[in-house]
Structure formats: C-alpha cells, structure tokens
Design brief:
Elements: H1 7-18, H2 24-31, H3 35-47, E1 67-74, H4 80-91, E2 96-101, E3 108-114, H5 117-130, E4 135-140
Antiparallel strand pairs: 1-3, 1-4, 2-3
Length: 159
Amino acid sequence: MSVRIDDTDRKILVELQRDASQSLDEIAARVGSSKTPVWNRIRKLKGAGVIGQQTVLLDAEALGFEATFFVLIRTSEHEADWQHKFLKALRDRPEVQEAHRLAGDIDYILKVRVKNARAYDEFYQALISEVRVHNVTALLSMEEIKSTTMLPLKALIES
C-alpha cells in the first residue's frame, strides 16, 4: 500500500521517533494540529507500514552487555541452500543486532552485542559449527560514539 506523506506526517514521525510515549495531545501541540487528525494520520501511517513495531530502547551496558563486535564475513559459498542456512543461523541468534549483505570484498557485516570476549567466542564457535565461512574478522568497538534509530526526517520537511 502506497501512502502519500506530507510535512505534517513528517512532523508527527519526527515526534514519534523522538519519544513514542508522548500523548496524542503532546504530539498534536508540537506539530500544530489537534488530537483527532493526528490520531488519524498515525493510523494511516501504521496501516501503510511506515510506522512499524513500537518498542523501548534498553541500556545494553547497564544490563551487562558490555562488548560490541563488528564481524566481517567472507564466504566462498553463494548457493541458495548455504545462504538460507546462514540467514537462519543469524536470525536464531539474539546476539546479532544487525546483519547486512555487502557489495565489495566483504560479503556480510554483523553487529553482535555480548557480555564479553568469552561470550563472543561462544557465539563465533556456534556460528562456524553451523555454516562454513571462508574468513571471519571480528572488530571490538572500544567506544560507541553515536548510535541512533532515528531517520533524518527534519531534512525533508519544507521550511
């Protein structure tokens, strides 16, 4: 379903990205509208799939997940069966927060969040026991400088 998104919709989306727990009254006041039209627009955006799952952001370090690894994977396997098995292995592992198939020398990059290096090694050993990979390089993030789930919608709003 295709939906046309105007500046008011974008302003609503900016507010929801900033804080989805706001009341309709708060969102309406911030975007210069009233409650009912804002609610109708949010319903329309949800129905069109523009707004997906709503969740909360947890502090990984406060919960003991102190290590983030970026895992670069090269494979010599490109058959559909291998790819299906590999993707299933990634989806079955909650440590994998993101997985991307890349163009270039590296085939996949994973963002893996674990408690520590030992937990990463357990993840690694389990993964390579399920699927063959040609080369794996793990890079430990020393410091998270920026992380966001927010899209740069303000740049699309006409002034």
